[in-house]
Amino acid sequence: MKVTQKNVRVFHIEIDDEASFLEYFRKNTLLLKEFFLLVEGNITKNIAFVLEQSGVCYKEINNCNIRFGGIKKETPLLEEEPKKEVISEVLSEPKQLPKQLPKLKLYDRPIRSGEEIIESIPIVIFGRVNSGAKVFCEESMSIYGIIDGLVQCDGEYIVLSGISPRGHLIFNGEIVDRETLKQNVLQKIIVRDNVIEIKDVV
Known about the structure:
Blueprint: E1 10-14, H1 18-32, E2 36-40, H2 45-54, E3 57-60, E4 105-107, E5 116-119, E6 123-125, E7 134-137, E8 141-143, E9 150-153, E10 157-160, E11 168-171, E12 174-175, E13 187-192, E14 195-200
Parallel strand pairs: 1-2, 2-3, 4-6, 5-7, 6-8, 7-9, 8-10, 9-11
Antiparallel strand pairs: 10-13, 11-12, 13-14
Helix pairs in contact: 1-2
Protein name: Septum site-determining protein MinC
Pfam families: MinC_C
InterPro entries: CAP/MinC_C, MinC_C_sf, Septum_form_inhib_MinC_C
């Protein structure tokens, strides 16, 4: 037997009613195929049929005790040890300061088809995100070219100048509807009170 741990990109979907789920799923099928779906709620025969026919990977989790999000761990308090007298030595060599991590990463080029970028710091892309390219960022992003591939941003904001009919954008776990975005207009997307806001950058 071989057991390996994998990191998987997941969407958690809670079904309220069949019609709204089917409309949402049909609109976003191509994007959702890139993720493992955890489906909670009443999976009707129609929903099960659509999921099976689409070829997405999913799991019904109505009876699972899965916790979503981080778990805050309490750190036990340690008893203070009695203070000991320490004699420090004077070093002749100067102490080296720890290297600072870069503040952001800059891509002054298009992101090629088939290329996958995963970053944990803010990124700026001066170019197009081509069809078949995937960009995942845990922090804020600025993209000064058309999004024709898949972009996922989990930061405070994303600035973009447009998305093609083939492009997909996920911002803080929400799929952004292309119809709410303008073409060739610089826009900034943020989340305020759990609602996505899109504003023109002037």
